[in-house]
Amino acid sequence: QVQLVESGGGLVQAGGSLRLSCAASGRTFSAGVMAWFRQAPGKEREFVGSIGWSGGTTFYAESVKGRFTISRDNTKNTGYLQMSSLKSEDTAVYYCAGGSYYVSNPRMYTIWGQGTQVTVST
To answer: Would the CA dihedral through 25, 93, 61, 121 be positive or negative?
Structure first.
């Protein structure tokens, strides 16, 4: 059983940067797709982006394309979400998830972290 733990959230000013980490423990995580989602109060969970097992294939939501970068280090069993040029609308709880497919539907992901809060102030 794989467990995911996010870290790195916090308060940042608009225009700033933040890097989130997703550490996996348990069975190796290297073979699957890792994705990031976010959920703002009163809103549905939103796909942010995903990365394949080798790190060579990434997908991003249009709202974050060009500002966010997903990467992973399978030797450390850790994934990352580098966020730049942050906007107030990026404020949300950010979750990492593990699955087998490159999909944006959160129901297709079977493993979830507990989430980390990101707040962007203006």
So the answer is: negative
